[in-house]
Amino acid sequence: MNDLQGRIVVITGASSGIGAETVKILAQHGAHLVIGARRVDRMDALVSELGNIEGQVIVKQTDVTKQADIDSLIRTALDKFGRIDVLINNAGLMPLSFLSQTKVDEWEQMIDVNLKGVLYGIAAVIGPMKLQQSGHIINIASIAGHSVFATGSVYCATKHAVRALSEGLRQEEPHIRTTVISPGAVDTELPNAISDKRIGAATQEMYQQAISATKVAESIAWTMAQPANVDVNEIVIRPVSQSQ
Ligand SMILES: NC(=O)c1ccc[n+]([C@@H]2O[C@H](COP(=O)([O-])OP(=O)(O)OC[C@H]3O[C@@H](n4cnc5c(N)ncnc54)[C@H](OP(=O)(O)O)[C@@H]3O)[C@@H](O)[C@H]2O)c1
């Protein structure tokens, strides 16, 4: 994947799971990264683990529910590297519950992070990418953006929305590559946010079949490595045993 050498990449939700694995793979292939999440200690540890990458990965504390934080994340990439080639809107959370449990705070969190966070990311890069006449926006949706399951109503709604706005972006911006990555069960910290014990236990059980986050990260890197005139619009990747 020599094509990734020197690519300027910003990624949200880089402190764990799919985001952290993506940082590792892209850094190993010579990309320059500005990485954001709230847990700076986790991102610093990730950079130390990578070793010998002086200045190649910049850590920036970022809460994607704050537009100013995302603007600042993107500004850091532009100031340091002069352009931005790829934005990976990856931050997300999945506190599943039944609608009748009216966990309104969790609904709002999902809308703020999974949907508004992605929109803030697009808002921050679309101007610079239009000026460059190039760029690549990769949004991490889910197979929950393709179907709906009980306890996942709000999570699925946010992921359906991410797919819808990604398609709109693709149609509106012919110079910007637009990719949706829709994973099934992936072995990360994602189920930890489920506050209902029974739903949490059932989800952990279902996640016994989960695939490694490295596999999703590799699919992200593969879309980035395609020739400039090729836009991989969506990848669905899940455990072979996962029926839905
Ligand atoms: N794992 C799966 O089975 C699966 C399946 C389909 C889709 N996905 C999607 O994949 C993406 C990554 O999730 P994951 O599976 O890697 O889970 P994860 O290990 O829990 O990672 C989630 C990441 O999002 C970040 N995040 C959460 N709230 C944030 C906020 N307000 N501001 C900035 N960052 C925030 C977290 O960082 P901080 O807490 O440090 O801020 C963390 O780095 C999500 O969009 C998720 O919906 C995952």
TrEMBL record:
SUPFAM superfamilies tied to this protein: NAD(P)-binding Rossmann-fold domains
Keywords: Oxidoreductase
Name the record gives this protein: Oxidoreductase
Biological source species: Veronia nyctiphanis
Annotated GO MF terms: oxidoreductase activity, acting on the CH-OH group of donors, NAD or NADP as acceptor
Protein family membership: Belongs to the short-chain dehydrogenases/reductases (SDR) family.
InterPro entries in alphabetical order: NAD(P)-bd_dom_sf, Sc_DH/Rdtase_CS, SDR_fam
Pfam families per record: adh_short (PF00106)
